[in-house]
Amino acid sequence: MKKPLALHPILFAIFFVLALYSYNVAEVSPSEIALPIAIVLGCTLLLLLLSWLLLKDAPKAGVVISIFVVLFFSYGYVAVGIENWGVTYKALWPIWVLIVVLSMYLVIRTRRDLRKLTTILNVIAITLVIIPTVNIAIQETKAASLDTNPGGNVGTYVTDLEETDALPDIYYIDLDRYASESTLKEFYSYDNSEFLDYLSSKGFYIASESKANYLKTHLSLASSLNMKYVNYLSEIVGEDSSDLDPFYEMLQDYEVWRFLKSKGYKYIHLGSWWEPTRKNEYADVNFNYWEVPQFSMTLFKTTMFYAIALENERLPNWLRAPFIKEYRKAHWERILYQFDKLSEIPNMKEPTFVFAHLLVPHDPYIFDREGNYLTLEDEKKRSRIVNYVDQLIFTNSKVKALVDELLSNSEVPPIIILQSDEGPHPERYALDETNFKWEEATEAELREKMGILSAYYLPNVDNSVLYPSITPVNSFRLVFNLYFDTNFELLPDRVYAFHSNRYQYKLFDVTDKLKYDQQ
What we know:
Elements: H1 8-23, H2 34-55, H3 58-81, H4 92-109, H5 115-144, E1 170-175, H6 181-188, H7 193-201, E2 205-206, H8 217-226, H9 233-237, H10 245-252, H11 255-262, E3 266-270, H12 275-278, E4 285-287, H13 294-301, H14 304-311, H15 327-344, E5 352-358, H16 376-381, H17 384-409, E6 415-419, H18 427-431, H19 443-450, E7 454-457, H20 475-484, E8 496-500, E9 503-509
Parallel strand pairs: 1-5, 1-6, 3-4, 3-5
Antiparallel strand pairs: 2-7, 6-7, 8-9
């Protein structure tokens, strides 16, 4: 009987990459999986070759490597699954190593013919690869057939590069989940007036009744950066769709940068770790600290190697691959890096449009109020409210220092918009994000989620043109009208929630539940 070719180790390895991509296909571009697949294939082939050289038995070598591959990539899923049993990510490590070693030992020691098992494993592996591949193809085909911008651009822009020396730099700084003053008082027992008074003393207008237009970052930023509501996508994509790719596309190619580019601006993008804003392919300059794609990091966190990284945080950098850096510490360093880079923008000669997505005071809570690094263990010792407020206090100190730098070092007074795309999660939602239904949310929960920081520094403009309840969808409509003589009509300031995380296209108006006056 001819020995079957042991393809299953390679197919199992590919399956874990494709399965993760299939689950996140709406958030990840196909190019993001090329490098992970290449690395996984190369490492699996190398291990398979070494195993065959040692064992001199192809079927046995294949089974040994398949055991290793399956257990290697399933580690993270199992660790998350048993976390509620009190077994930590790190604690599972020795148990898993024992299972891997024992399983491989039993296969090596067996005297049974493994050719039939090889055939069975090949069939199983092929089937597993086909399932996510079909799902990916269906979703990609469906997405390609949709026209998610049927109305075209908001405006038609003519290139105008004259007098660029007199153009002000424009900063759109998104402080994710930064709550409004009223939200902080009502739900966090924190008085933020000292920070807001500082901004006012510098000439900022505080839109004290501003609300997010949508519940989540991808909807809110797609709306504010394109200067329009995005409800129309529900009719195009379908209310039951889970494909968020149309929103992510709108975060790459959006109206604001196109308009400003036509006026002679240089586009600077400061990304977060979140894939849709990690970088922008249209930006002239991308700044991002430790720029590992989110998909690669997510895949890495499912593996046994991530557990090794957690156990060996004190290894010297030259012994650690860049992506092994512990996530929390990297996030802490990224935020500091973003503030540093923002302070350097005034040194650039060209007029610049800067979009910065800063995930603070958004969790994880990695700063204490002095800016020291907060470990996961320290975070868990403190309440959610204490962690949020402390991170917000440190964020305030960095924003104040940044504003001082931008105002003092800019030859032409800059336009600065400090804004949040959403407020913090209500506690009941945070406990069960998957099943929480926003149609059943209380008015208090909606107030906590939708109340945001919204502050405008508009040089040489009377702040009376602004009003307390202006929402992000109108930010650039107003700015462009004031500084570029456009005639964008201000849209009604409305606030929309969606049914649940599963049905984010099922949008409904909650403006009246938030009880603030329209202009």
